[in-house]
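Quick note —
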Amino acid sequence: MTFPIVHSSDPVALFGGGAADLADVAAVQALATRFVAADGGAEVALRAGVALDAVIGDFDSVSPETLAQIPADRHHRIAEQDSTDFDKALRHIAAPLVLAVGFLGGRVDHQLACLSVLARYPDRPCILLGPEECVLLCPPALDLDTRAGEVVSLVPLAPVQGTSAGLRWGIDGLVFDPMVRVGTSNMAEGPVALTMTAPAMILIVPRRCLSSLTRALVHASRPARWPARAGQRKDPPQS
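Predicted structure written out below.
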């Protein structure tokens, strides 16, 4: 069973050790009230002057000098090597939404692993912020304040269906499957409304939508949130 390390009734910003700049940090700082680093993400946060509430990970990519600048009671080392630092951090944050920077860009395998984690913990809404886009697991229902001509991409991780309003190419009645049909480069005709039948669709929208997405996910009603996956794996032993 997972016991949260960080609790918050407001969005939490999570920093990773990948590509991130001061604009990325500022974007999530403006929307979050607590700040967490996944291992080497502590370097990114401290360079930007962010006071961290916790550092979570196996500590193989954060320097002793950086850790020395963070109170020892905020160090949370999880030694197992069966999960990524993003996984370790996300599963130990209890908040209505996590805003994650430093997890997109760089190595493709790291980015794909992050998408897998989003699907593994559908009950923990999280937006990955990239240079141009926001990436998230689409909830059961979501209204987007997109503008006409903006790209809305839908990438299934497993078979899933949904409905849409406001997309140039509607998705009603389609069966998405990573081996058969994906929905990249769809186009908004204005605000878009989506529903999904399962927590298996990655949604990619313009970075401009970050603030409105944050509001929508934080204030989502229970039917618009996914429950935890049945039989979700237990944490490996920690040290």
